[in-house]
Amino acid sequence: MITDFKKYLQQKAGISDADFDKLEPALLTKQISKGAVLLRQDEVCSEVYFISSGLLRAYTVDNAGKEHVIQFAPENWWLSDRNSFLFNEPALFFIDAIEDTEIIVLTHSFFDLAGNITKFTEFNTKALHNQVRQHQQRISLLIGASAEERYIDFVERYPNLLLRVPQWMIASYLGITPESLSRVRKELARRNFKPTK
User: Fold this and answer.
1) 40 lies in a domain?
2) Rounded to two decimals, what is the model's pTM?
3) CA–CA dist 35, 98 (Å, integer)
């Protein structure tokens, strides 16, 4: 896991072997069983997760007990409740494992060390900006797009998840019922829909 994370940071952030050697003591690895909860709503989040293998999700639960999936995080994605992590506020999300998952756990100690590495700081700033951009796009879709448009966006954003995620979770992510999702998929199949990515 650590070797994969090193390759990821070298490819994406351009950090050197020497820089990674400074960060490695602050890295933790964990194996998470399917269904395990890593973070509960209203706890304070003290970790950021890099997914080495497997699949996590972030979701909220409303007052009626209904889940609303906010994000899926497959291999080479990062996941955390950044609001809670950065501002020490109660978490807005639950985070759990959809599959058996291997993660690199990044704590505040890691980010304190990484703050002294210019290339990582630039990478992390760009990643945070990209996350804001993706959340804005998602909000725009939820407010103004049809169920079909939202589903097409999901397929293009997460091309490898269709067979890994239960249909009810996909429906929850899209903000529609499983029945509506079934209708959308049937209509797209009838038209021979193929993702563009």
Assistant:
1) yes
2) 0.91
3) 6
